[in-house]
Amino acid sequence: MLFYPVSNPAKIKQRIIDAAKSKAHEADEEREAVNFSFIDASLITSRLHLETAINQAILAESQGSLRTKTVHSEILFALNPTNNITEAIRRYGVSDTTKALCVVQIMNSSATTASISDVEIKMKKVVNGSIVSFDELAKLTDWNTVEKYHKLGNEVKEKRDAQRARAFIDNVAVSSVAMKSVMQ
């Protein structure tokens, strides 16, 4: 789901950190409450970009080749053009300044079946924001930052208009995610 605007990104980030640090049995409930991938939507260029990262993370988990601790953090890793896990989480995860958030939940096949409305209710308990259509994503994307992270300065300047430049950036971002596991 795509949330915009989000009014509690710092609180979400802190909840994720607290849940990850805690070893107590009581923390299991909090870990389950934030058992999502929280992705800064300003760095997602298209639905295909996000879906490709999700697919790569699920594939890595199914093959036992996760490079991060969870399938949810693996999505962030897949989105980042470098192989630095810490950088991926810092760049693509929720931050104190996140305004738009893609929230993804991956459930394994042995998990109890939850309806979409159940998952939506769980997400709304964590994220203070409005759910908007994915059609809004292109308006929320920070194209300059995506261009910077993918080091596309000269290539983008060669495009004649903003629409072509954005299509090029999206193509590079999607291809980068799709090829990341092959390049390892």
From TrEMBL:
InterPro entries assigned to the protein according to its UniProt record, in alphabetical order: CGI121/TPRKB, CGI121/TPRKB_sf
Record keywords, A-Z: Nucleus, tRNA processing
Predominant cellular place of this UniProt entry's protein: nucleus
Top-level taxon of the source organism: Eukaryota
TM region(s), chain numbering: none
Purpose of the protein: Component of the EKC/KEOPS complex that is required for the formation of a threonylcarbamoyl group on adenosine at position 37 (t(6)A37) in tRNAs that read codons beginning with adenine. The complex is probably involved in the transfer of the threonylcarbamoyl moiety of threonylcarbamoyl-AMP (TC-AMP) to the N6 group of A37. CGI121 acts as an allosteric effector that regulates the t(6)A activity of the complex. The EKC/KEOPS complex also promotes both telomere uncapping and telomere elongation. The complex is required for efficient recruitment of transcriptional coactivators.
The protein's name: EKC/KEOPS complex subunit CGI121
Organism: Lentinula lateritia
